[in-house]
Specification:
Blueprint (H helix, E strand, L loop, with lengths): L8 E7 L5 H20 E6 L11 E7 L5 H13 E7 H6 L11 H13 L17 E3 L6 H15 L1
Parallel strand pairs: 1-2, 1-3, 3-4, 4-5
The structure holds iron/sulfur cluster.
Length: about 160
């Protein structure tokens, strides 16, 4: 019988500006891995999975999406402060695009969206996660590549066992 871990690995799953397709991939992976992950992970903060979420101390924080507002910026910094490892999930978090399309708008397009930028109190430019906080691991892809995600999660898990 496998030895019981003293403490589960505390994880969080966070979503900023994006279409959340990597979150869907993550929940699909849960179908296959929930038994093993239930023993391994304490999902402290994952709005997609539960209502009551805590942002206290995390071993691994997974962040999907680009940073598009000062609120995202603040949240990213808070997550970084309480997390041992931060993982950027999907192309939007890793490189900003495609969520950062408005960064490449011409002057006329920029004028057209000005009222939206101000209504949603958005940043003048959409940022990739590493523009705001230190990122330890990247899982690129649009959406993220599930095999790459699993490989990197398994490597991270080894650091905590
Ligand atoms: S990387 Fe692609 S799939 Fe992921 S949030 Fe961005 S647009 Fe959506």
């Amino acid at each position: 019988m496998p030895k019981k871990r003293k403490q589960k690995i505390r994880v969080g799953w966070f979503t900023f500006s994006c279409c959340e397709d990597s979150t869907i991939i993550f929940t699909e992976l849960l179908n296959d891995h929930w038994k093993e992950w239930k023993e391994l992970f304490d999902f402290r903060h994952a709005r997609v999975l539960k209502k009551n979420n805590v942002l206290d101390e995390l071993d691994i924080a997974f962040i999907e999406g680009a940073v598009a507002s000062p609120e995202h910026e603040k949240m990213a910094k808070e997550i970084r402060k309480v997390s041992k490892k931060v993982v950027a999930i999907g192309a939007c978090a890793v490189q900003g695009m495609p969520s950062a399309q408005r960064n490449f708008f011409d002057e006329k397009q920029k004028e057209e969206i000005e009222f939206l930028i101000s209504r949603f109190k958005a940043l003048p430019k959409v940022l990739k996660l590493s523009d705001v906080v230190k990122v330890d691991v990247e899982v690129p892809g649009c959406p993220m590549n599930p095999e790459d995600f699993l490989r990197k999660v398994n490597l991270l898990v080894k650091e905590f066992v």
